[in-house]
Amino acid sequence: MSWRPLAGQVALVTGASRGIGRATALALAEAGACVAVGYNSRSEDAEAVAVEIRGHDVAAVALDADLGDSAVAAGLVARTIAALGGLDIVVNNAGITRDNLALRLSDTEWSEVIAVDLTAAFAICRAALRPMLRQRHGRIINVSSIAGVMGNPGQANYSAAKAGLIGLTKALAREVASRSITVNAVAPGFIETDMTLALGESVKTGALASIPLGRIGNPAEVAAAIRFLALPEASYITGHVLQVDGGLGA
Ligand code: NAP
């Protein structure tokens, strides 16, 4: 209970009802931050995360928002500030996949992934930058993917969105560095969540063979990297892409 480097700070984590987002929200709370738990439809899961966060003696609120609509996404910033009194840390984590080979990839599969995984993150960054520029402090962490670094067959939409997040991260980092706002990305490899549960056994076996550490990662290992980028110790890191992938992209 004595280690509270983020005491007095407020974080917004999208997609925090499950998986990597949930682990991140809890890790930030453990470090003393109040947390807004963004989610789409699983209100019971999100409320349960908020209850767990309050167990760390910090405030938490669960906020529903379908990030397929960029105006709704941007609205999360004002709702977080209204509920928790400020905004210091944004983790754009929510993401979806709609996998298909490029020849068969529909316009809908393309645009749904771009909307949630890229456009919503931009809308949230743009909305969050106003208060952050005013207070001359802020941390933005965008959750990309190794697919955005290396590309992945069957995921042209997802790879494009995640590569786009890296470009967004680097451009914003340069725009706002003079106001002590850092913008970084974390690029997870193969992590055990509902997203990877949906993959077939043969895909999983193939992926495992290409991971130097020889195992799938867990959400807490990604959350630790995200939290590090929010800590005072990371104040001189911006525009960086931190791969948390067991060496997959080495
Ligand atoms: P997950 O377990 O599938 O959880 C997805 C989260 O995003 C949930 O909280 C979900 O909310 C939320 N979400 C989905 N669609 C949404 C929408 N339209 N509006 C608002 N929220 C929405 O995902 P995960 O595996 O933890 O992945 C988290 C992030 O890491 C994603 O950006 C993903 O691309 C990235 N990533 C994951 C892996 C991996 O191996 N798992 C690897 C690389 C990168 P509900 O619960 O309400 O549906």
Largest sheet: 7 strands, parallel
Give the overall shape, derived from the CA principal axes.
Answer: globular
Q: Which structural class fits the helix and strand makeup?
A: alpha/beta
Cα-to-Cα separation, first versus last residue: 36 Å
User: Which architecture would the CATH scheme give at its second level?
Assistant: 3-Layer(aba) Sandwich
Overall mean pLDDT stands at 97
Strand proportion, as a percent range, falls in 5-15%
Would you give an account of this structure?
By secondary structure, this protein is an alpha/beta fold. It has one domain: Rossmann fold, CATH 3.40.50.720. It is 48% helix and 15% strand. The chain is globular. The mean pLDDT is 97. NADP nicotinamide-adenine-dinucleotide phosphate (NAP) binds at residues 14-21, 39-42, 45, 65-68, 93-96, 116, 143, 145, 188, 190-191, 193-196.
